Amino acid sequence: MVLKEKIDKIVQEGDWEFAKLLKLNDVCGELAKNYYKSLDASAILELIWEIKIDEGGRTLGQIISMECRNIIKKEFMTSFQKCFETATVQFKSPAKETLRVESIKEEQPPLPKPKANKSDKEKDTIKGEDGIDMPKGVKRV
């Protein structure tokens, strides 16, 4: 159940005296104090997660996320630094076999098919109605 629904249920099911409700601020303050005591840590974080808490407009969720990532990053850095302190480096040339051209296997795309060869006469001329070859683009008058 969401916070609003839980609060509505408390208000509707409560037995309220009108005289006490005249001091609504005090009544709501006491109810809020009691309700807060019943919340666990995850419910409290959920309540305030999206509240803006700094001048830049950042929310608590954004600040916590940023700080958690910084802490985790520092732990990774420390772990890598410990590994680097005991690491050894060997300078060896790669085996000659890995340098040969035959060892490189690369798929080549298929070659394009050559166009059919037409004679020069077929390329530049078209047969007219009278059977005489005419250059392409020329019209008889």
Shape: elongated
H/E element string?
A: HHHHHHEE
Helix content: 40-55%
Given helix and strand content, the structural type is mainly alpha
Q: Which spans have pLDDT < 50 for at least 5 consecutive residues? A: none
Describe what this molecule looks like in 3D.
The protein has 141 residues and is mostly helical. Among the domains are: 38 residues; 37 residues, no CATH class. The chain is built from 6 helices and 2 strands. It has a two-stranded antiparallel ribbon with strand order 1-2. The N and C termini lie far apart (91 Å). The relative contact order is 0.04. The mean pLDDT is 81.
Structural key phrases:
single chain, 141 residues, mainly alpha, two-stranded antiparallel ribbon, 2 strands
Task: Please describe the topology of this protein.
Blueprint: H1 3-13, H2 18-21, H3 24-38, H4 41-48, H5 60-86, H6 120-124, E1 125-127, E2 133-135
Antiparallel strand pairs: 1-2
What's this model, at a glance?
With 141 residues, the chain is mostly helical.
